[in-house]
Specification:
Layout: H1 4-17, E1 22-31, E2 41-45, E3 50-52, H2 58-67, E4 82-86, H3 90-95, E5 103-110, H4 114-125, E6 130-135, E7 141-145, E8 153-154, E9 158-163, E10 167-172, H5 176-187, E11 190-195, H6 199-202, E12 211-213, H7 217-224, E13 230-234, H8 239-250, E14 256-259, H9 263-276, E15 287-288, H10 300-315, H11 326-335
Parallel strand pairs: 10-11, 10-13, 11-12, 13-14, 14-15
Antiparallel strand pairs: 1-2, 1-5, 2-3, 4-5, 6-7, 6-9, 8-9
Helix pairs in contact: 1-4, 5-10, 7-8
InterPro entries: MoCofactor_Util/Proc, XdhC_CoxI, XdhC_Rossmann_dom
Organism: Variovorax ureilyticus
Pfam family, one: XdhC_C
């Protein structure tokens, strides 16, 4: 599945280029619990078509009824962007399906400029990180390439939101586990690349939408150019393939670098890297293994769930309890 923001912006661009009216809704503030985080976007066409989400669905329904012809009486305004709040009272929170005490505020942009949207989408498709600044007085937009991700900001005069590039995952090894993990990663918005120089494994690969390469894994890591929105996961159990890829990945800004394997294999891998590749405990501090969180998983799909959960936790800066680590949990279980 492609990055959701890109999908939303592309759909809105296509509507506007085709001469259809459209609206861009952005979550700009939340109070209490909220179904979608600040910065989430949704596009809506004049006929009620919607891409993206700002809630669980009830707010989308209200926007459609208010601002489109889908129900016959909706009218989409023109002019400067406008703010709208949902869930201000307990009754409204209940009506719109918001959690107890939840309130969110949206900025609605009417008929965004198609040329500006096209420039933004093209930049995101080329892997650029883009900052979009909206002047609240008239809805004019300024685009700049950003140097680092940033949270949405809004004040009395402008809104600034940073988009893209999409998160990426490089998998080393084309086994069954990789198929499940690649599928889950795509549903989570990652662009997935698979590396396996073993042709017998490549022939059975059947996950659509994944870029494949038969380069040696360390060369694949170099070509992949991992950044802060990338993760590298080694799944072959073969040191000749995994080790050099992991060492290469540890020299990058990848937010997650890890390898499948037992506790014994993980310890052996670290020993090899220290003895033969001049690594230290400090240089290997970011190397994860055994990967995943402990859920008692034994089958490939369950292991993939475990690994994907850990990757998402790291991506979202969630500090997992020490007891959730596979090695710690298994060691505790063995001691009982």
């Amino acid at each position: 599945m492609e990055n959701l923001d890109v999908m939303v912006l592309r759909a809105l661009r296509d509507w506007r280029q085709a001469g259809r009216r459209g609206l861009l809704a952005t979550v700009v503030r939340t109070w209490g619990s909220s179904p979608r985080p600040i910065g989430s976007i949704m596009a809506m066409a004049e006929d009620g078509a919607v891409v993206g989400s700002v809630s669980g669905g009830c707010i989308e329904d209200d926007l459609i009824a208010r601002y489109t012809r889908a129900h016959g009486d909706g009218v989409m305004p023109t002019g400067a962007p406008a703010f709208v709040k949902y869930g201000i009272t307990a009754d409204e929170a209940h009506r719109f399906g918001l959690p107890c005490g939840g309130t969110l505020e949206l900025l609605l942009e009417y008929d965004p400029d198609p040329a500006s949207l096209d420039t933004l989408v093209a930049s995101l498709e080329r892997g650029r990180l883009m900052q979009r600044t909206v002047t609240l007085a008239d809805g004019s937009v300024k685009l700049n390439e950003a140097s680092s991700p940033a949270a949405l900001t809004v004040n009395d005069t402008e809104l600034v939101n940073t988009f893209g590039p999409e998160y990426r995952m490089l998998l080393i090894g084309a086994g069954q586990l990789a198929e499940y993990l690649a599928t889950m990663a795509q549903f989570s918005g990652f662009a997935v690349t698979l590396c396996d120089p073993r042709t017998e494994y490549q022939t059975s690969w059947n996950v659509p939408g994944v870029t494949t390469t038969t380069e040696m894994p360390d060369d694949a890591v170099t070509a992949f150019k991992p950044d802060r929105r990338s993760c590298v996961v080694a799944l072959t159990h073969d040191p000749k393939l995994d080790d050099l890829a992991l060492l290469e990945a540890l020299q990058t800004e990848a937010f997650y670098v890890g390898a499948i394997g037992s506790r014994r294999n993980a310890e052996a891998r670290r020993d090899r890297m220290i003895e033969h590749f001049d690594q230290t405990e400090a240089s290997l501090a970011r190397l994860r293994g055994p990967i995943g969180i402990y859920i008692g998983s034994k089958t490939p799909p369950e292991i993939a769930v475990s690994v994907m959960a850990e990757i998402l936790a790291v991506k979202n800066a969630v500090q997992l309890p020490r007891e959730a680590a596979v090695a710690v949990a298994k060691a505790a279980a063995a001691a009982v």
